[in-house]
Backbone:
Protein backbone atom coordinates (compact mmCIF):
# COMPACT_ATOMS: atom_id res chain seq x y z
CA UNK A 1 0.00 0.00 0.00
CA UNK A 2 1.44 3.37 -1.05
CA UNK A 3 1.28 6.00 1.70
CA UNK A 4 1.44 9.72 1.05
CA UNK A 5 3.45 12.29 3.01
CA UNK A 6 5.96 9.83 4.46
CA UNK A 7 9.60 10.92 4.83
CA UNK A 8 10.54 8.67 1.89
CA UNK A 9 7.93 10.31 -0.36
CA UNK A 10 9.06 13.79 0.66
CA UNK A 11 12.70 12.87 0.04
CA UNK A 12 11.97 11.46 -3.42
CA UNK A 13 9.76 14.42 -4.32
CA UNK A 14 12.61 16.75 -3.35
CA UNK A 15 15.11 14.73 -5.41
CA UNK A 16 12.77 14.73 -8.40
CA UNK A 17 12.15 18.47 -8.18
CA UNK A 18 15.86 19.25 -7.87
CA UNK A 19 16.28 17.61 -11.25
CA UNK A 20 12.93 18.78 -12.64
CA UNK A 21 13.15 22.49 -11.85
CA UNK A 22 16.05 23.18 -14.22
CA UNK A 23 14.33 21.03 -16.86
CA UNK A 24 11.11 22.98 -16.36
CA UNK A 25 13.04 26.22 -16.83
CA UNK A 26 14.55 24.84 -20.04
CA UNK A 27 11.14 23.66 -21.27
CA UNK A 28 9.54 27.02 -20.50
CA UNK A 29 12.38 28.74 -22.32
CA UNK A 30 11.83 26.53 -25.38
CA UNK A 31 8.06 27.01 -25.44
CA UNK A 32 8.59 30.65 -24.49
CA UNK A 33 10.17 31.12 -27.91
CA UNK A 34 6.83 30.11 -29.40
CA UNK A 35 5.07 32.46 -27.00
CA UNK A 36 7.27 35.33 -28.17
CA UNK A 37 6.46 34.48 -31.78
CA UNK A 38 2.73 34.40 -31.01
CA UNK A 39 2.84 37.75 -29.19
CA UNK A 40 4.84 39.45 -31.96
CA UNK A 41 2.57 38.01 -34.65
CA UNK A 42 -0.47 39.28 -32.75
CA UNK A 43 1.06 42.77 -32.75
CA UNK A 44 1.53 42.63 -36.51
CA UNK A 45 -2.17 41.84 -36.99
CA UNK A 46 -4.91 39.17 -36.96
CA UNK A 47 -3.93 37.83 -40.41
CA UNK A 48 -0.30 37.49 -39.34
CA UNK A 49 -1.34 35.69 -36.15
CA UNK A 50 -3.47 33.22 -38.12
CA UNK A 51 -0.65 32.64 -40.65
CA UNK A 52 1.93 31.98 -37.93
CA UNK A 53 -0.53 29.72 -36.09
CA UNK A 54 -1.08 27.34 -39.01
CA UNK A 55 2.58 27.42 -40.16
CA UNK A 56 3.86 26.65 -36.67
CA UNK A 57 1.47 23.73 -36.43
CA UNK A 58 2.80 22.29 -39.69
CA UNK A 59 6.33 22.70 -38.31
CA UNK A 60 5.25 21.07 -35.06
CA UNK A 61 4.09 17.92 -36.86
CA UNK A 62 7.74 17.25 -37.70
CA UNK A 63 9.10 18.61 -34.42
CA UNK A 64 6.93 16.27 -32.34
CA UNK A 65 8.02 13.16 -34.22
CA UNK A 66 11.74 13.92 -34.29
CA UNK A 67 11.73 15.09 -30.67
CA UNK A 68 10.14 11.81 -29.64
CA UNK A 69 12.72 9.88 -31.63
CA UNK A 70 15.63 11.66 -29.94
CA UNK A 71 14.04 11.48 -26.48
CA UNK A 72 15.41 7.93 -26.44
CA UNK A 73 18.81 9.48 -25.65
CA UNK A 74 17.62 10.24 -22.10
CA UNK A 75 16.71 6.73 -20.86
CA UNK A 76 19.64 5.18 -22.78
CA UNK A 77 22.21 7.42 -21.09
CA UNK A 78 20.38 7.24 -17.73
CA UNK A 79 20.56 3.44 -17.68
CA UNK A 80 24.18 3.40 -18.87
CA UNK A 81 25.04 5.86 -16.11
CA UNK A 82 22.98 4.04 -13.48
CA UNK A 83 24.67 0.75 -14.40
CA UNK A 84 28.08 2.48 -14.00
CA UNK A 85 29.16 1.57 -17.52
CA UNK A 86 32.64 2.75 -18.61
CA UNK A 87 32.97 6.40 -19.53
CA UNK A 88 34.20 5.37 -22.98
CA UNK A 89 30.95 3.49 -23.65
CA UNK A 90 28.82 6.44 -22.58
CA UNK A 91 30.98 8.89 -24.51
CA UNK A 92 30.82 6.76 -27.63
CA UNK A 93 27.03 6.88 -27.50
CA UNK A 94 27.15 10.68 -27.16
CA UNK A 95 29.23 10.99 -30.35
CA UNK A 96 27.04 8.58 -32.30
CA UNK A 97 23.82 10.24 -31.19
CA UNK A 98 25.11 13.57 -32.52
CA UNK A 99 25.81 12.10 -35.93
CA UNK A 100 22.39 10.49 -35.98
CA UNK A 101 20.75 13.81 -35.02
CA UNK A 102 22.53 15.62 -37.85
CA UNK A 103 20.96 13.26 -40.38
CA UNK A 104 17.57 13.72 -38.73
CA UNK A 105 17.89 17.50 -38.90
CA UNK A 106 18.74 17.55 -42.59
CA UNK A 107 15.74 15.33 -43.33
CA UNK A 108 13.51 17.58 -41.22
CA UNK A 109 14.49 20.78 -43.05
CA UNK A 110 14.15 19.22 -46.50
CA UNK A 111 10.72 17.74 -45.70
CA UNK A 112 9.42 21.06 -44.41
CA UNK A 113 10.28 22.80 -47.65
CA UNK A 114 9.01 19.98 -49.86
CA UNK A 115 5.63 19.18 -48.30
CA UNK A 116 4.90 22.10 -45.95
CA UNK A 117 3.60 24.52 -48.61
CA UNK A 118 1.26 21.87 -50.08
CA UNK A 119 -0.16 21.13 -46.63
CA UNK A 120 -0.82 24.83 -46.04
CA UNK A 121 -2.54 25.24 -49.43
CA UNK A 122 -4.88 22.37 -48.55
CA UNK A 123 -6.33 24.33 -45.62
CA UNK A 124 -9.45 26.47 -45.88
CA UNK A 125 -7.65 29.81 -45.52
CA UNK A 126 -7.64 33.00 -47.56
CA UNK A 127 -5.00 33.27 -50.28
CA UNK A 128 -3.27 36.12 -48.44
CA UNK A 129 -3.02 34.17 -45.17
CA UNK A 130 -1.80 31.06 -46.99
CA UNK A 131 0.92 33.03 -48.79
CA UNK A 132 2.04 34.62 -45.52
CA UNK A 133 2.14 31.22 -43.83
CA UNK A 134 4.25 29.67 -46.62
CA UNK A 135 6.76 32.51 -46.52
CA UNK A 136 7.03 32.31 -42.75
CA UNK A 137 7.54 28.53 -42.87
CA UNK A 138 10.40 28.85 -45.38
CA UNK A 139 12.20 31.37 -43.18
CA UNK A 140 11.53 29.18 -40.15
CA UNK A 141 12.49 25.81 -41.68
CA UNK A 142 16.21 26.21 -40.96
CA UNK A 143 15.42 25.78 -37.26
CA UNK A 144 14.76 22.08 -37.89
CA UNK A 145 18.42 21.22 -38.43
CA UNK A 146 19.65 22.90 -35.28
CA UNK A 147 16.71 21.72 -33.17
CA UNK A 148 17.60 18.08 -33.92
CA UNK A 149 21.12 18.62 -32.63
CA UNK A 150 19.68 20.45 -29.62
CA UNK A 151 17.49 17.47 -28.78
CA UNK A 152 20.36 14.99 -28.96
CA UNK A 153 22.61 17.15 -26.77
CA UNK A 154 19.85 18.03 -24.36
CA UNK A 155 18.36 14.57 -23.75
CA UNK A 156 21.77 12.94 -23.33
CA UNK A 157 22.73 15.59 -20.74
CA UNK A 158 19.44 14.93 -18.92
CA UNK A 159 20.18 11.23 -18.70
CA UNK A 160 23.52 12.03 -17.10
CA UNK A 161 21.85 14.35 -14.59
CA UNK A 162 23.60 17.42 -16.04
CA UNK A 163 20.71 19.85 -16.36
CA UNK A 164 22.30 23.23 -15.60
CA UNK A 165 23.90 23.50 -19.08
CA UNK A 166 20.47 22.94 -20.62
CA UNK A 167 18.99 25.83 -18.64
CA UNK A 168 21.81 28.19 -19.62
CA UNK A 169 21.41 27.34 -23.30
CA UNK A 170 17.60 27.47 -23.20
CA UNK A 171 17.47 30.89 -21.55
CA UNK A 172 20.04 32.17 -24.04
CA UNK A 173 17.82 31.00 -26.89
CA UNK A 174 14.73 32.62 -25.38
CA UNK A 175 16.46 35.97 -24.89
CA UNK A 176 17.94 35.86 -28.40
CA UNK A 177 14.56 35.03 -29.92
CA UNK A 178 12.92 38.00 -28.20
CA UNK A 179 15.72 40.35 -29.26
CA UNK A 180 16.02 39.11 -32.85
CA UNK A 181 12.25 39.15 -33.27
CA UNK A 182 12.06 42.72 -32.03
CA UNK A 183 14.78 43.73 -34.47
CA UNK A 184 13.65 41.87 -37.57
CA UNK A 185 9.85 42.00 -37.24
CA UNK A 186 9.57 45.72 -36.56
CA UNK A 187 12.81 46.96 -38.16
CA UNK A 188 14.66 48.66 -35.30
CA UNK A 189 18.16 50.22 -35.57
CA UNK A 190 17.80 50.79 -39.30
CA UNK A 191 17.00 47.17 -40.15
CA UNK A 192 14.13 46.54 -42.59
CA UNK A 193 10.80 45.59 -41.02
CA UNK A 194 10.34 42.03 -42.28
CA UNK A 195 7.09 41.28 -40.47
CA UNK A 196 6.46 37.60 -39.85
CA UNK A 197 9.27 36.67 -42.26
CA UNK A 198 11.58 38.31 -39.76
CA UNK A 199 9.93 36.24 -37.06
CA UNK A 200 10.91 33.04 -38.89
CA UNK A 201 14.47 34.30 -39.34
CA UNK A 202 14.71 35.30 -35.67
CA UNK A 203 13.57 31.86 -34.51
CA UNK A 204 16.06 30.09 -36.78
CA UNK A 205 18.98 32.22 -35.58
CA UNK A 206 17.98 31.92 -31.92
CA UNK A 207 17.73 28.12 -32.21
CA UNK A 208 21.20 27.97 -33.77
CA UNK A 209 22.62 30.08 -30.94
CA UNK A 210 20.88 27.98 -28.28
CA UNK A 211 22.29 24.78 -29.76
CA UNK A 212 25.76 26.27 -30.07
CA UNK A 213 25.73 27.32 -26.41
CA UNK A 214 24.78 23.80 -25.29
CA UNK A 215 27.50 22.26 -27.48
CA UNK A 216 29.99 24.67 -25.87
CA UNK A 217 28.76 23.59 -22.41
CA UNK A 218 29.73 20.04 -23.32
CA UNK A 219 33.29 21.33 -23.72
CA UNK A 220 33.20 23.47 -20.59
CA UNK A 221 31.53 21.24 -17.96
CA UNK A 222 34.12 18.72 -16.66
CA UNK A 223 31.71 15.77 -16.37
CA UNK A 224 30.39 16.14 -19.92
CA UNK A 225 33.84 16.89 -21.32
CA UNK A 226 35.18 13.74 -19.69
CA UNK A 227 32.59 11.52 -21.36
CA UNK A 228 33.24 13.09 -24.77
CA UNK A 229 37.00 12.68 -24.42
CA UNK A 230 36.68 9.06 -23.33
CA UNK A 231 34.37 8.23 -26.22
CA UNK A 232 36.38 10.00 -28.93
CA UNK A 233 38.84 7.12 -29.29
CA UNK A 234 36.11 4.51 -29.76
CA UNK A 235 35.56 3.06 -33.24
CA UNK A 236 32.81 4.71 -35.24
CA UNK A 237 29.64 2.82 -36.06
CA UNK A 238 25.88 3.09 -36.26
CA UNK A 239 25.01 1.22 -33.05
CA UNK A 240 23.96 4.48 -31.41
CA UNK A 241 21.53 5.15 -34.24
CA UNK A 242 20.09 1.64 -34.02
CA UNK A 243 19.63 1.97 -30.25
CA UNK A 244 17.87 5.31 -30.71
CA UNK A 245 15.60 3.94 -33.42
CA UNK A 246 14.69 0.81 -31.44
CA UNK A 247 13.63 2.76 -28.36
CA UNK A 248 12.84 6.09 -30.00
CA UNK A 249 10.40 5.07 -32.72
CA UNK A 250 7.74 3.94 -30.21
CA UNK A 251 8.36 7.11 -28.17
CA UNK A 252 8.02 9.16 -31.36
CA UNK A 253 4.75 7.39 -32.09
CA UNK A 254 3.52 8.16 -28.57
CA UNK A 255 4.30 11.88 -28.64
CA UNK A 256 3.18 12.16 -32.27
CA UNK A 257 -0.15 10.58 -31.38
CA UNK A 258 -0.73 13.25 -28.74
CA UNK A 259 0.93 16.14 -30.54
CA UNK A 260 -0.67 15.21 -33.84
CA UNK A 261 -4.07 15.30 -32.14
CA UNK A 262 -3.44 18.91 -31.12
CA UNK A 263 -2.04 19.87 -34.52
CA UNK A 264 -4.94 18.33 -36.44
CA UNK A 265 -7.34 20.07 -34.06
CA UNK A 266 -5.65 23.37 -34.88
CA UNK A 267 -5.99 22.69 -38.59
CA UNK A 268 -9.66 21.71 -38.18
CA UNK A 269 -10.21 25.00 -36.37
CA UNK A 270 -9.54 26.66 -39.73
CA UNK A 271 -13.00 25.47 -40.82
CA UNK A 272 -14.51 27.93 -38.36
CA UNK A 273 -12.60 31.00 -39.59
CA UNK A 274 -9.30 32.74 -39.07
CA UNK A 275 -10.40 34.43 -35.82
CA UNK A 276 -11.06 31.01 -34.31
CA UNK A 277 -7.64 29.76 -35.48
CA UNK A 278 -5.97 32.78 -33.88
CA UNK A 279 -7.94 32.30 -30.64
CA UNK A 280 -7.01 28.63 -30.52
CA UNK A 281 -3.33 29.55 -30.96
CA UNK A 282 -3.53 31.93 -28.01
CA UNK A 283 -5.20 29.40 -25.70
CA UNK A 284 -3.12 26.39 -26.72
CA UNK A 285 0.10 28.39 -26.48
CA UNK A 286 -0.53 29.29 -22.85
CA UNK A 287 -1.74 25.76 -22.09
CA UNK A 288 1.48 24.43 -23.64
CA UNK A 289 3.51 26.84 -21.53
CA UNK A 290 1.79 25.59 -18.36
CA UNK A 291 2.22 21.98 -19.48
CA UNK A 292 6.00 22.42 -19.46
CA UNK A 293 5.94 22.02 -15.67
CA UNK A 294 4.47 18.49 -15.54
CA UNK A 295 6.44 17.64 -18.67
CA UNK A 296 9.65 18.66 -16.89
CA UNK A 297 8.62 16.51 -13.93
CA UNK A 298 8.00 13.65 -16.36
CA UNK A 299 11.45 14.05 -17.88
CA UNK A 300 13.03 14.10 -14.42
CA UNK A 301 11.03 10.98 -13.60
CA UNK A 302 12.49 9.27 -16.67
CA UNK A 303 15.99 9.96 -15.38
CA UNK A 304 15.23 9.00 -11.77
CA UNK A 305 13.50 5.76 -12.80
CA UNK A 306 16.09 5.00 -15.50
CA UNK A 307 19.05 5.35 -13.17
CA UNK A 308 17.40 3.07 -10.58
CA UNK A 309 16.51 0.53 -13.28
CA UNK A 310 20.05 0.65 -14.64
CA UNK A 311 21.31 -0.19 -11.16
CA UNK A 312 18.87 -3.12 -10.99
CA UNK A 313 16.81 -1.60 -8.15
CA UNK A 314 13.28 -1.97 -9.55
CA UNK A 315 11.60 -1.34 -6.20
CA UNK A 316 13.18 2.12 -6.20
CA UNK A 317 12.29 2.56 -9.88
CA UNK A 318 8.62 1.86 -9.13
CA UNK A 319 8.60 4.16 -6.11
CA UNK A 320 10.22 6.99 -8.06
CA UNK A 321 7.70 6.62 -10.88
CA UNK A 322 4.72 6.79 -8.50
CA UNK A 323 6.05 9.90 -6.76
CA UNK A 324 6.74 11.57 -10.11
CA UNK A 325 3.17 10.89 -11.23
CA UNK A 326 1.80 12.39 -8.02
CA UNK A 327 3.84 15.54 -8.55
CA UNK A 328 2.59 15.84 -12.11
CA UNK A 329 -1.02 15.46 -11.07
CA UNK A 330 -0.79 18.06 -8.32
CA UNK A 331 0.77 20.60 -10.65
CA UNK A 332 -1.82 20.00 -13.36
CA UNK A 333 -4.58 20.84 -10.88
CA UNK A 334 -2.88 24.11 -9.93
CA UNK A 335 -2.34 25.01 -13.62
CA UNK A 336 -6.03 24.49 -14.33
CA UNK A 337 -6.97 26.78 -11.42
CA UNK A 338 -4.68 29.54 -12.73
CA UNK A 339 -6.27 29.37 -16.19
CA UNK A 340 -9.76 29.73 -14.74
CA UNK A 341 -8.97 32.50 -12.25
CA UNK A 342 -6.71 34.69 -14.42
CA UNK A 343 -8.30 34.20 -17.84
CA UNK A 344 -8.57 37.88 -18.73
CA UNK A 345 -5.05 38.73 -17.64
CA UNK A 346 -3.60 35.85 -19.66
CA UNK A 347 -5.48 36.72 -22.86
CA UNK A 348 -4.46 40.37 -22.55
CA UNK A 349 -0.80 39.47 -23.03
CA UNK A 350 -1.53 37.99 -26.46
CA UNK A 351 -4.08 40.17 -28.22
CA UNK A 352 -6.21 43.31 -27.93
CA UNK A 353 -8.58 42.20 -30.69
CA UNK A 354 -11.99 41.92 -29.00
CA UNK A 355 -13.28 39.10 -31.21
CA UNK A 356 -10.19 36.95 -30.76
CA UNK A 357 -10.01 37.71 -27.03
CA UNK A 358 -13.62 36.66 -26.41
CA UNK A 359 -13.17 33.37 -28.26
CA UNK A 360 -9.80 32.69 -26.60
CA UNK A 361 -11.28 33.22 -23.13
CA UNK A 362 -13.74 30.40 -23.65
CA UNK A 363 -11.02 28.20 -25.11
CA UNK A 364 -8.78 28.78 -22.08
CA UNK A 365 -11.49 27.46 -19.75
CA UNK A 366 -11.76 24.34 -21.89
CA UNK A 367 -7.95 24.01 -21.88
CA UNK A 368 -8.06 24.03 -18.08
CA UNK A 369 -10.20 20.88 -18.16
CA UNK A 370 -7.70 18.79 -20.08
CA UNK A 371 -4.76 20.08 -18.05
CA UNK A 372 -5.89 17.75 -15.29
CA UNK A 373 -5.25 14.70 -17.47
CA UNK A 374 -2.32 16.00 -19.50
CA UNK A 375 0.04 16.18 -16.54
CA UNK A 376 -0.83 12.65 -15.40
CA UNK A 377 -0.18 11.09 -18.81
CA UNK A 378 3.09 13.03 -19.18
CA UNK A 379 4.54 11.78 -15.90
CA UNK A 380 3.28 8.22 -16.40
CA UNK A 381 4.90 8.24 -19.83
CA UNK A 382 8.12 9.52 -18.31
CA UNK A 383 8.16 6.72 -15.76
CA UNK A 384 7.56 4.10 -18.48
CA UNK A 385 10.41 5.49 -20.58
CA UNK A 386 12.68 5.11 -17.56
CA UNK A 387 12.13 1.33 -17.59
CA UNK A 388 12.36 1.31 -21.42
CA UNK A 389 8.73 0.25 -21.78
CA UNK A 390 7.52 1.96 -24.95
CA UNK A 391 5.71 -0.49 -27.25
CA UNK A 392 2.57 -1.15 -25.20
CA UNK A 393 2.38 2.54 -24.16
CA UNK A 394 2.55 3.38 -27.88
CA UNK A 395 -0.51 1.23 -28.55
CA UNK A 396 -2.36 2.67 -25.55
CA UNK A 397 -1.62 6.19 -26.72
CA UNK A 398 -2.70 5.55 -30.31
CA UNK A 399 -5.96 4.02 -29.09
CA UNK A 400 -6.65 6.86 -26.64
CA UNK A 401 -5.95 9.74 -28.99
CA UNK A 402 -6.98 8.41 -32.37
CA UNK A 403 -9.44 5.68 -31.43
CA UNK A 404 -11.27 7.83 -28.88
CA UNK A 405 -10.08 11.47 -28.81
CA UNK A 406 -10.31 12.43 -32.48
CA UNK A 407 -13.55 10.50 -33.23
CA UNK A 408 -15.20 12.14 -30.21
CA UNK A 409 -13.90 15.56 -31.29
CA UNK A 410 -15.18 15.12 -34.84
CA UNK A 411 -18.55 13.78 -33.68
CA UNK A 412 -19.13 16.61 -31.20
CA UNK A 413 -17.87 19.39 -33.49
CA UNK A 414 -19.34 18.46 -36.86
CA UNK A 415 -22.19 16.03 -36.20
CA UNK A 416 -23.71 17.39 -33.00
CA UNK A 417 -22.96 20.99 -33.95
CA UNK A 418 -20.83 21.99 -30.95
CA UNK A 419 -18.22 23.53 -33.27
CA UNK A 420 -14.80 24.48 -31.88
CA UNK A 421 -15.83 23.61 -28.31
CA UNK A 422 -16.52 20.05 -29.43
CA UNK A 423 -12.95 19.74 -30.70
CA UNK A 424 -11.65 20.75 -27.27
CA UNK A 425 -13.83 18.16 -25.52
CA UNK A 426 -12.48 15.49 -27.85
CA UNK A 427 -8.96 16.44 -26.78
CA UNK A 428 -9.98 16.07 -23.16
CA UNK A 429 -11.51 12.62 -23.74
CA UNK A 430 -8.34 11.36 -25.45
CA UNK A 431 -6.05 12.70 -22.75
CA UNK A 432 -8.23 11.24 -20.00
CA UNK A 433 -8.05 7.75 -21.50
CA UNK A 434 -4.29 8.04 -22.04
CA UNK A 435 -3.73 9.13 -18.43
CA UNK A 436 -5.70 6.16 -17.15
CA UNK A 437 -4.13 3.58 -19.45
CA UNK A 438 -0.53 4.69 -19.00
CA UNK A 439 -0.86 4.93 -15.21
CA UNK A 440 -2.24 1.39 -15.02
CA UNK A 441 0.50 0.16 -17.36
CA UNK A 442 3.27 1.57 -15.18
CA UNK A 443 1.68 0.12 -12.07
CA UNK A 444 1.51 -3.36 -13.61
CA UNK A 445 4.89 -3.34 -15.38
CA UNK A 446 6.90 -1.87 -12.51
CA UNK A 447 5.27 -4.26 -10.04
CA UNK A 448 6.20 -7.23 -12.24
CA UNK A 449 9.83 -6.06 -12.57
CA UNK A 450 10.09 -5.44 -8.83
CA UNK A 451 8.73 -8.89 -7.97
CA UNK A 452 10.98 -10.58 -10.53
CA UNK A 453 14.06 -8.83 -9.13
CA UNK A 454 13.02 -9.77 -5.58
CA UNK A 455 12.64 -13.44 -6.50
CA UNK A 456 16.02 -13.44 -8.27
CA UNK A 457 17.68 -12.01 -5.16
CA UNK A 458 15.98 -14.38 -2.74
Residues:
Amino acid sequence: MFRLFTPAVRAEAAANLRLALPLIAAQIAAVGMGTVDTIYAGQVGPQALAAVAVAVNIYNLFLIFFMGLLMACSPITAQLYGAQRPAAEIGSFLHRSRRFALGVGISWTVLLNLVGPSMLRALDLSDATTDDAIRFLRWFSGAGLMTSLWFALRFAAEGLGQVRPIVIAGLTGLGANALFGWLFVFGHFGLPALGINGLGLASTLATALMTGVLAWQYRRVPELRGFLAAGAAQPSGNEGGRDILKLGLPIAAIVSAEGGLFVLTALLMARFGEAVVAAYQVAINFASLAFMIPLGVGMATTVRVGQAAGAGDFAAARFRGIVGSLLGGLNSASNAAIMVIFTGVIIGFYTQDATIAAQASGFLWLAAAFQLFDGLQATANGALRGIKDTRIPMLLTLLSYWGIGMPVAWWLAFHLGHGPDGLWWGLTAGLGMAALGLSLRFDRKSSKLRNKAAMAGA
Notes: The radius of gyration is 22 Å. The chain has one domain: 7-457. The mean pLDDT is 84.
